[in-house]
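the two lines:
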Amino acid sequence: MNKLFGFLARHQFTILFIALELLALGLIIRNHALHQSIAFNTSRYVTGSVLEARSRWVDYFGLREQNERLNLENSKLRNSLKSNYAQLYVRTDTVVDTVLLKQYVYREAEVVKLTHHKANNYITLNRGSIHGIKPGMAIVCEQGIVGIVRVVSEHFSTGHTVLHSRFSTSGALRSGAFGDVRWGGGSPRSAEIVDLPDQDAVSPGDTVFTTEFSGLYPKGIPIGVIRTLDRTEDGIFLKARIELSTDFTNLSQVLVIENLLLPERMSLEQSAESEP
Amino acid sequence: MKNLAFALIAGVSVLLAQVLIFDHILLFGVLNPFPYLFFILLLPADTDRRLLLISSFALGLAIDAFNNSGGLHAAVCGIIAYLRPQFIRLIATQGGLEFERLGLYDLGFRRFVVYAGLATALHHALLYTLEAFSWRMTGRALLFSILGTFFTVAVALLILLPFRRNASAR
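prediction for all of em together
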């Protein structure tokens, strides 16, 4: 027993070192294994506030470009206003709208932290649970898709961007052909779409849009534009390199989307799967 | 006690500099400098090694909190702090020297660059290998470690060069 204590006393520094390393390794593994629980992350109060203070200052330098983008977006939105269209017929009675049901709610948010150069990239927003943000909501910007919310604290939320090894979503072309979009590492400007049916209809220059398959994104949000095609040998599916619509190197305003009908759809799909 | 207070103040300043400035500097659009690592290298030579290990680990953990990287920097910082005496012995054997302070002007330019370069290279190699967390991206890890080492050391030298200690004041 004395020998054991002697051993521990002599090597206490090394034992401390090994204990700390094991702790750190545990945190790394947890970080990779359970994406819902990053132990110390940028949505915590202290880290979030520090980064938010920084982006409040730095945002001034990008105001000009932000204004231009907003203007562009405004012109697009104004173009889609109902008042732009002439009435072709005159309504004579009152219509109670039972046809349209609001499905998607958009919440604006500011980017507090965003990386695009790591193997796995995260985004932190200045909106949290008190603003109604929940894990699993989609993040988009006026250019295209951005990512998915993963962890939420009271005032902040953190999520995967498209530039994350675990991000994947379905994307469809105008022709209806669809495949799986994922980043695959490398440049923050491009991603790949796989399992796309090999049809003549697919060609470089086609835009890839989101689908409603995952229930996260509304239909028709731009993901990117096909640049090069890579036909596989079986001739059934093809892989394509796409240039992402969203510029992850310059992003400060985003929208978080809530699908109001998702819970209903999930429970329906679950009960269908559990049917014998 | 004085060492503890010094390590605390230096640690917080280094942390803020890293997360507010250097995390946003990108070489070729992909590569961050990590001059925070010089906190570990520059603490006085007589610093208690447990204090050195724990404060380095804590600094790494704080950097991790800002980068969503779990315990990545903490693990690497712990290793660097643990091996620091070996690095110092390596440069000291060249003349049987003893150092109290480990600054650029205390060690002399060449000795300091060897000391800092070796430690930084190990730090970056461990960091990028652990970050990739798979054997698939080792090419990227290797390239990033090599380029990153030069970048970090260069940035650190630029910061340290103006702080010339008055020789008579020592």
